[in-house]
Amino acid sequence: MNQYLAIREIREILLKAMEKAADTELSQYLHQIDEKLEYFLKKDIDFKEIVDGLDDGIFITDHQGNVLYVNPAYTRNTGITQEDVLNHNITELTGEDKLYTGGAVPDVLKTGKPAFRLSTTYKTGKPQTGYVIGTPIFNSSGELRQVVACSRTIVSLKSLKSDFNTFVQELSQLDKKTINTNSNENLSSEMIGKTTTLANIWTLIHHVAASDATVLITGESGAGKEVIADEIYKNSSRSGGPFVKINCASIPAHLLESELFGYEKGAFSGASAKGKPGLFELASTGTLMLDEIGDMPMDLQVKLLRAIQSQEITRIGGTKPIKLDIRFLALTNSDLKEKIENGTFRQDLYYRLNVIPIHVPPLRDRLADIEPLCRHFIDLFSSKYNRPFSLTEQQFGYMRQYKWPGNIRELENIIEYLVLCSSGVGHVEDDVITSLLNISSQKKTIPADSDFNTAVAEFEKQLLEHTLQTSGNLREAGRKLNINASTISRKIKQYNIDYPNRKD
């Protein structure tokens, strides 16, 4: 079609030349062009039939805005024919007392970008308003060649309203399915679980990942902070860029600045003769993860704040500012508010980092997640060492009874140890687990001289403790004991039972 339009344009030029001076050679050229036009029309007949059969109006101009083609639907919708607009420039046709007001084509010609606009035509004497989507067409060199505008009247859009509403509902359902599928398929081991807190974190990750907002991730060591950072990076628009990680606590204070900011040659004794780019530069166009941000020295906190605010740094020993394009993720197991109070962390830096706060709860507060995590690591290490392994319900209870100071990292190590200790028999005895976790597998004995009420209360307390240890939450424990969750909650307070989700 493009070739057809180009040849037709040449024909018009020759025709104008012939009107000024008769020339037999020009006449022969014109005849050859007519043959070419007929050839292209036959060759592109399917394309032309498709365009001519569309319900959408099609309006095509060249790169200067000269009208090349309108299809029959455009004429039906607006009353404007090819003869009305062909060989006219769009600027001649647009404005007061002309064929058009508004429209997308002038904007596309100006910007080279697609545009969506309302346009009103006046050919019929009665204003006809419709939407127009203008699309630029470029050649292989990236030069604008044509603008194709697709249009429909507002009246026709109203008739499609019910279809559109149905489409929106279907799209919403598809979006939900996609999110659920992605969350199941991409979930890292530390994100496996059933707790509401974890589900909320997962939802938040997908909401904030696409932005460039700074994220502050807090939580105990081993709880999964770095995994959260990895998930944010993987789901961000910067996932194709560098992901640079640095642990602020693992590098001596006097070296941390040069690692972050880099240095010019001769900046200090022992510096490389060529200088060295810092991690800020290496992370540009990507993401920089600052682990254990709470341990960063105060003097560096000032420079970090300036770098985040200005997206600009200067190397040590340098004078030329270097522009950055970085998304910052900060991680800490420290209480930064407490550090602010005792003067070891800057309040202004805290607020700059805490744009999107994410707190990862410790494993002891996620009892319902312990069993699925155990099963995940059992599958992982059973496959790795080719040793089938399983835990009993009682042993899962021991796992829930333990406080997990090392969180998921400790759980992973424990499961690997148990798989190796099973020696291929597929299980271990209870005392292996209780000894490893330093917990008791024995129930307390009720003294023989206890009165009835004391004995009943002690038995009730032990029963509750055992059920809570082997249940993921109060509701599950209630089902096992055939009482409601509120009764269990009241009994927990009554007997002062140590339960992580207890509300005082």
Automatic annotation (TrEMBL):
The keyword Lipid metabolism does not apply. Residues 43-97 form the PAS domain. Residues 191-420 form the Sigma-54 factor interaction domain. InterPro entries: AAA+_ATPase (IPR003593), AAA_lid_NorR (IPR058031), Homeodomain-like_sf (IPR009057), HTH_Fis (IPR002197), P-loop_NTPase (IPR027417), PAS (IPR000014), PAS-like_dom_sf (IPR035965), PAS_fold (IPR013767). It holds the Pfam family Sigma54_activat. Keywords: ATP-binding, DNA-binding, Nucleotide-binding, Transcription, Transcription regulation. NCBIfam families: sensory_box. This is Sigma 54-interacting transcriptional regulator.
